[in-house]
From TrEMBL:
SMART domains: Ephrin_rec_like
Protein name listed in UniProt: Tyrosine-protein kinase ephrin type A/B receptor-like domain-containing protein
Domain Tyrosine-protein kinase ephrin type A/B receptor-like: 60-99
Protein species of origin: Guillardia theta (strain CCMP2712)
Pfam families (UniProt xref): Ephrin_rec_like
């Protein structure tokens, strides 16, 4: 709140804050954000960038907390559709590589070249030649024959699977099991959460401004419609989005109602 000329108090608009002892509002510093009526700036969450207002990093980018810009996902990695609480790059799995930066999903990692092996994650090129007396099809992890391995959690392994992470569970599903034979056995993502696919657990809880029914594939798949908002995490249906109150406006995917600007009303 701020009190100009002893009048008020008044709430600062979004992008500004007042410590309560000021007669004016201050611009929210870069790397932070300020909701309407803020007393102090809040640190920009990981997976977002803030120049007064928090914005999510696009696919293929990531950020740490307090960032003013997003960083392209480096070669050998992929970056999910970033949300608050993420903000890190995932390595391309064993048996794959990626020479390109800016990957947004595991499927953009390239299977290891036939005749080569990729025994480590986060490779930018195949690492080893196939050993004499062995053969190495596309996606080979080790340059010599390896014992049969368990399927990786978050994946399924039908007959003829070459490596444990060859077939990720599709978006909207996950699995803690390492004994699945088909995608149909992957577990449906529960309501209130989202599942990017290829993971052993749910990817995260539905963020504010969005709702997540069963089998939701990403945190931003189902935004609250324009004219509504949602300040709670984990809501499961559009009915959880609240009607924008009089004197405010709410954009699609709003986490809170924004007061009408000075000189306007609703």
């Amino acid at each position: 709140m701020f009190c100009p000329f002893g009048l008020g108090p008044f709430g600062c608009p979004p992008g500004y804050y007042s410590n309560g002892s000021s007669t004016s509002c201050h611009v929210c510093p870069r790397g932070t954000f300020c909701e309407a009526g803020s007393d102090l700036p809040k640190l920009c969450p990981a997976g977002e960038f803030c120049d007064n207002i928090p914005q999510s990093c696009p696919q293929g980018f990531y950020s740490s907390a307090g960032s003013v810009d997003c960083t392209p996902c480096p070669a050998g990695y992929y970056c999910h559709f970033c949300v608050a609480g993420s903000g890190s790059a995932a390595p391309c799995p064993l048996g794959t590589f990626s020479p390109a930066a800016g990957n947004s999903q595991q499927g953009q990692c390239t299977l290891c070249t036939a005749g080569m092996a990729c025994p480590r994650g986060a490779l930018t090129a195949p690492l080893e030649n196939c050993e004499l007396g062995h053969y190495c099809p596309s996606g080979t992890i080790y340059p010599t024959h390896a014992p049969i391995q368990k399927c990786s959690r978050g994946h399924f392994c039908p007959a003829g699977t070459s490596f444990p992470t060859q077939y990720p569970c599709p978006p909207g599903t996950f699995t803690e099991s390492n004994e699945l034979a088909s995608a149909a056995e992957c577990t449906a993502c529960p309501p209130g959460f989202y599942c990017l696919g290829g993971e052993a657990k749910v990817s995260g809880q539905c963020p504010t401004g969005y709702y997540c029914p069963t089998n939701t594939e990403s945190s931003f798949q189902f935004p609250c419609p324009a004219g509504t908002y949602n300040s709670q995490v984990g809501i499961t249906s559009v009915e959880g989005c609240l009607e924008c109150p009089p004197g405010n406006f709410c954009l699609q995917g709003s986490s809170f109602a924004i007061p009408c600007f000075a000189g306007t009303y609703s």
